[in-house]
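Hey, can you fold this one?
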Amino acid sequence: MRVLHFADLHLGMENYGRMDPARGLHTRTLDFLRSFDFIIETAVSRQVDLVLFCGDAFRSREPSPTLQCLFAERISRLARAQIPVLLLTGNHDLPPLPGRRSALEIYPILDVPNIDVVTTPGLRKINTRSGPLQVACLPAGGHGAGLQGEEAEKNAARLVAEMARQTEND
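Sure. Predicted structure:
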């Protein structure tokens, strides 16, 4: 089974570089997009069974529509290639206030096939080209929002143990 894992894309990071007036994007954003394109091309050309993205799609919790479209163009290429995608929310993906949604949560609302956005801990069962796969997911905020250090680690370990028991029972 082939799983391609990546995280911390931080699309929209604009340290260093300059604005490219011809494209309307910062040169650092263009750098990040080239790397993202390489990841997507690798997943498609190697026919991976799953792409696992573990958070922080954007630098900001409220990314611009342009950045959201650039991300969606690439992720949707995986969906069209029949590659399942798990998008876990990272701390940069969490909404700034209760009652708001993460930018990643648009995919289930639009019912985009092959894309599963994970905002709460739990097991995901995925049908892949190579057979079924279970993934224990602990997205940011899901292992005890507000907890830090050892307390957060203990809570995460407890959740992983619960998910392992659930796997044994399935």
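Strands lie at 3-6, 19-20, 25-26, 50-54, 85-88, 115-118, 122-128, 131-137. Let me know if you want another pass with a different chain boundary.
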